[in-house]
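Async update (no meeting this week)

Hi team, since we skipped the sync, here's where things stand on the single-chain job. The sequence we agreed to prioritize is pasted below, unchanged from the tracker. I ran it this morning and attached the output directly underneath so nobody has to dig for it. Comments welcome in thread, and please keep replies under the output.
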Amino acid sequence: MILGLILNLAGFTAISILLAHYLWERRILSGFVHSSVPPSKSILDTALDLAGRIYVQVARGSDPPFIPIAALDIVGATPVSILRHCGCCSGFARLYITGLATLGIKAAQVTLYHETQKYQHALVEVSLGETGCDTKQGMVVDPTYGFYYVDSDGRPISLNELRQGVKPKYRRLPHSERRRPTSARTDESYPPNDYYNFDFSQTKTANWTKTWVRRSAYRILRALTAGRIDILKQPLWMEWPQVEVSVAVAMGVVMFDLAMLFGTTLRPFRDGD
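Output:
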């Protein structure tokens, strides 16, 4: 009983601290976004403006760990730590997605795969709302390299269009002229080497090749969902490590309490034997 009370108190304390940190960071991020991006009637213009500012202002580097424990590397960095320090492509995508959310714009991460079928690069698909055909139009944006994807006519293209074989072209983001490319590339291209030989038709919404656990899970989920796992978008709360860890802690405490309750319920039967 004492152990259960201690564990529940520790869990409640940890969750309270994590959620307080989440609310603090969300306030900071909202302040940055609303002070940087001017009001616009167009979702497209607003989304491109924020992406350009992130591209120009945020340094490239490894995502700073949220909690310096190797087992928790999977949750990634917090949006504000990326904004203040640096980030890799997945970090840039996370910062962009959560930043757009403060403006009421929906977005989700998409991932590019190499021709060898391995995960290679993280992007973002922004929801532009309803089109004239009553279907949602998306726009793929790369805030790490400073451009967004368009078709041969210059119109933004979505994840579905990439998966259907549309060959993307690139258009640079607003403000990107303030940060010149340092590698052998132009403002509207990836560096010319094998790393960027993407198979766009294999674009998905998650990195399923990083570990054997993910690869095994993907095979199962792909069969269970008839392939729809490839386009299942990650919910916004999973872009906040504080919330992810809070959920994990809460689940751990609940499972412990259930185990204790189950053990207490069965004890009279065992004692009777």
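Quick observations from my side:
Residues 41-203+235-245 form a domain with the C8orf32 fold fold (CATH 3.10.620).
The first strand starts at residue 59 and ends at 60.
Reply here if anything looks off.
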